[in-house]
Amino acid sequence: MKRTHGFTLVEMIITIVLVGIVGAILTLQIKPALQSYQSVARRANLVNQADTAIKRMVTDVRSAVPNSLNMTATPAGICMEMVPTVAGGRYRVEPDTTNPDASRAYDPGATDKVFDVLTALPNVARGDIVVIGNQSTDDLYKTRSNMAPIKAMTAPDASIGVVRVELETSAPFSARDDGARFVVVPQNQQVVGYLCAGGNGRLAGGDGKGTLLRTVRKLTDPGQCPTAGTPAVVASKVADCGFVYRESEGATQQSGYLQLRLGLANGDESVTLTAGAHVENVP
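The structure assignment produced for this chain is given below.
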């Protein structure tokens, strides 16, 4: 008769105890490493979100129409709006000396609103808006006397210009730009805004309670940074959000300085980034 080999109850208990001790030791060693890894991942994600959001805002600001940056306190939060551009260039201010009848110079008092452009206009289409000589936010958001939508663009003789622009409206522009400059505003994104919605601070779990939104509206639409519809979320879990803009005075009044502050929080991890941007307000 063969003897059956196996584990005794005592051996099994000892094995279970040893495995438990080893598991507890491994847990004590691995748990902090896992927690540290998760914390680093959360922090890196917050830094990436904040950095991307600030860079996007600065990019929009630097491509905006001069003197279009506008700060407003709304019931939904702090609103920063601007009028973006997709192109720009210089227009002809005097007829071509060798072919004056064929060339078309810009005339603030003309009624046909056709003029030659001395630079190419990529990414510009019918309905986009030409802005000339903008001096203040009121020119854009209230009177709108220095802009007109594009009706058509043609290619004149290469010797007198690159593009001939025909505008929809016959109302004259209010002024001529000293540098013969103009910019073009896209018809589908006439006013872009950034809204610090939800306020600053944290929720009970440690996450930021606010949201940074990017809004779009037309120049004729009332209200700043509208929240109707579905504004794009630029950053979530916002714990601190603020914009400060100061225009220079005196001889340097055609420049300004914008300071952006964005703080994000996720649980016990948080990050706050600040950035500054010089704003060129030469029309």
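Interim note for the steering committee: Helices lie at 9-62, 137-143. Residues 208 and 239 are 4 Å apart (CA to CA).
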